[in-house]
Design a protein that fits this description.
The chain is α+β, with helices and mostly antiparallel strands. The chain contains six helices and three strands. It has helices at about 5-10, 30-40, 85-90, 95-115, 120-125, 130-140; strands spanning about 45-55, 60-70, 75-85. The termini are far apart.
């Protein structure tokens, strides 16, 4: 049985994989192949299906997007949608095949994001995989400082008793602060 490494699956992508958004596009991105590698390396079983979305552009039936579904074993399924940049529909360099490839890639990454994979790219988080690992390690470690409480300088002073009239009360009559 293969052990699923959800930490590896869901940790932010390393900064060296993140590409700047092309001019006129929103948000940085990670190439499609890196998502596939992350899924493969995490040890889980998944499947991907995709179908083109057709629409009419300048009187022609064209591929204008893609709808894909990723299913991850024991985790469920999510749909993702990808679209075609309008300028590509008007450019002879881009045919329906290349447009479908681009739309499928976007659909795949958007479906993966629903599971949390690459979500930092959509949420605007700038934390890298390296920073995430360091933070996780810091959170997992506990620093203990020993103090000899028998020594006078380390003893906690006893609180001075205060009259009840000095306590602050809430509007409902409950005590707003601890009496010590």
């Amino acid at each position: 049985m293969v052990k699923i490494d959800t930490g590896k699956l869901l940790s932010p992508f390393p900064s060296n994989l993140v590409r700047k958004a092309p001019a006129g596009k929103f948000g940085d991105y990670v190439p499609h192949a890196n998502y596939v590698e992350r899924l493969r390396d995490s040890g889980l079983k998944y499947s991907w299906t995709c179908e083109p979305i057709y629409g009419t552009h300048n009187g022609e039936n064209r591929i204008v997007g893609a709808k894909g579904t990723i299913t991850i074993e024991d985790m469920g399924s999510y749909d993702g949608f990808g679209d075609i940049d309008t300028f590509k529909l008007n450019n002879e360099k881009f045919n329906d095949g290349t447009n479908l490839k681009d739309a499928e890639s976007d659909a795949f990454k958007r479906a993966c994001m629903r599971f949390g994979l690459g979500v930092e790219l959509w949420s605007g988080s700038t934390q890298t995989e390296e920073e995430y690992a360091a933070e996780t390690a810091r959170e997992a470690s506990v620093e203990v400082t020993k103090k000899d409480m028998r020594l006078k300088e380390n003893k906690v002073p006893n609180p001075e008793p205060r009259p009840m009239d000095d306590l602050l009360l809430n509007d409902d009559g409950t005590i707003a602060e601890a009496p010590f």
